[in-house]
Amino acid sequence: MYGALVSGNHGLLLNVGTIIFGFLLPILLSLMVFGKKKAKTRGVPVEVGGEPGFTVRNNRFDALVELPWEGASTLAALFEQACTKYGRNKFIGSRKLISRETMTSGDGRPLEKLHLGEYEWLSFTETFNRACDFASGLVKLGHNPNLRVVIFAETRAEWFIALQGCFRKSITVVTIYASLGEEALTHSINETQVSTVICDSKQLKKLAAISSNLETVKNIIYIEDAGVSVDSGLSEKMPNCILSSFSEVEKIGKENPTDPILPVKTDIAVIMYTSGSTGVPKGVMMTHGNIIATAAAVITTIPNLGIKDIYLAYLPLAHVLELAAEAVMLAAGCAIGYGSAWTLTDTSNKIKQGTEGDASALKPTLMAAVPAILDRVRDGVRKKVEEKGGMSKKLFDIGYKRRLAAIEGSWFGAWGLEKVLWDFIVFKRIRSILGGHVRGVLCGGAPLSGDTQRFTNICLGAPVEQAYGLTETCAGGTFSDWDDESVGRVGPPLPCCYVKLISWEEGGYRTSDTPMPRGEVVIGGLSVTPGYFKNEEKTKEVYKTDEKGVRWFYTGDIGRCHPDGCLEIIDRKKDIVKLQHGEYISLGKVEAALLTSNYVDNIMVHADPFHSYCVALVVPSRRSIESWAKNSGIECKDFTDLCQKQETIKEVQQALMKAGKDAKLDKFEIPAKIMLSPDPWTPESGLVTAALKIKRENLKTKFKDEVHNLYE
């Protein structure tokens, strides 16, 4: 990714005058010291009902925010009113496929490479008309509001059109990750008694394989993909289903228009099946009012959000982060360009050489990301800097350190003339990786390390804001303020909800702790969902409604509240293990610290009460390990063989010790033994979620023998 910055005769081989200027100006500017900014109040304590605890609300609003504007109380109403309001403005865009090629990698694996064209756009009005046509087509197929639809597809324009089409008929949409396995997929469809499945052609084969186990499915609507033919024999494999293409349903609807049947805010809009880090997936029921409240709240936190913004959509729409983000963009009149994690940048896996990645073609101003993606961006940039060395590395290091000192200290150069200088010399070309116009990145789905947050913030020259929410709270929870330059925190409560800390005596976290109250994070308010579909027992376990009618969700996460009202997630109840000698170890905290090592692509730390130490399964960074092996003169047959060598294990172990010490972990928190797993953990393998969080129980089951051997 970083190659563009340091390649070519004109990259960073600047003239002597510019280099001297780059060295001397920071020194001069460093003499200009201003007092530190006074801490800004972002959240304030408030008295609420329910279980006693320490509660805060957003400082800018006295009452909870419910609507983006009067009358937009459902997603159907929001969609119609936004399309009327923004009319001919461009809204959703997709890239045209020019060609699809299959190549062979160095180890013999087939690699698909795509040649993609520019973005082609639909206006708000055109999108609305297509959604209406699709809705009428569903009716013609025999669908009615009492039947549910499942969307089982990758993020794309048709996903959004299908969703809004269903809402035009008050149809509840069930969302399922495209990466979900056959057993979980069958469970989710049968539990919700779905009548119609909307999928892309890639997922069609999965449905055909399990069609005999699907109890209620009558219609399957597949989204056509350019260059991909649908097996003509699929209809015979699914004799109980009517197979139709997405465009056919739209055409039928256009020829047979029907009146809308619009929902109310308390109707269930979406049943979202989580990929779940434990157990079988659970279906979270979200009302129209829940999603609208989150969208209305987020709009208040992003400055100058509007029709000039372009949002790059590539995260799974079956994940609450992306679903909520696109509702925000709809309400604000922003353009949404659809892409993919595999085609995101010019060097992404599926991008044909010489073809622009999605970010380069779209030039977005706003993006959402999960920590794993930003970690890879950070590691890629750092690796390219190290490889280039020389003056390029010196300039990068100086520029980065100066910007870091400016942000964390009180130097004038934080965002002034010195920033312009370093942007020109160093950071401008890094930003071109994501199109060069990004003014803000929202990160959610899992904890983001402070190191990655600051690194990305400096390199992009834009806020990288953490948000905290869950599927059960419709992504509504907390959201970092745009002007908050701190890292490691997730911000104050969104104005649609309250955040409460409740003491957890067993874990030693209390609201009476100093200097900050600590405890289990409980979220209450308009974004909190009704509960789990057909799972009253689990719903009663983690949801409560207080005497004032406010609904609360008990997250299981441990947080502390800073004096300015911002939340920091510091632990998770389920991740805490008591070791043999009585020490408590937080697995998630340790994993987050060790992930900062350049050698680590993914990691699962394991501990049990019968030992005084912990162990770890590590997916090593193939590029970093192979580079180290080459420089060390270590020969091997393949990467699997390299991961089994004692020299490699020792090298990674030492790197983990350093990362642990840098993070101030105690000795017992640093894994005493490790195993290197050469194969990456993917959502398809069931070892990580769609948001790339590890599925601890699945990993423990798969690597049961390996973990046992580490304790021998």
Automatic annotation (TrEMBL):
Pfam families: AMP-binding (PF00501). InterPro entries: AMP-binding_CS, AMP-dep_synth/lig_dom, ANL_N_sf. Gene3D superfamilies: N-terminal domain of ligase-like. It comes from the Eukaryota. One of its GO terms (molecular function) is long-chain fatty acid-CoA ligase activity. The chain crosses the membrane at residues 12-34. Residues 112-533 form the AMP-dependent synthetase/ligase domain. GO terms for cellular component: endoplasmic reticulum; membrane. Keywords: Membrane, Transmembrane, Transmembrane helix. This is AMP-dependent synthetase/ligase domain-containing protein. It comes from Amborella trichopoda.
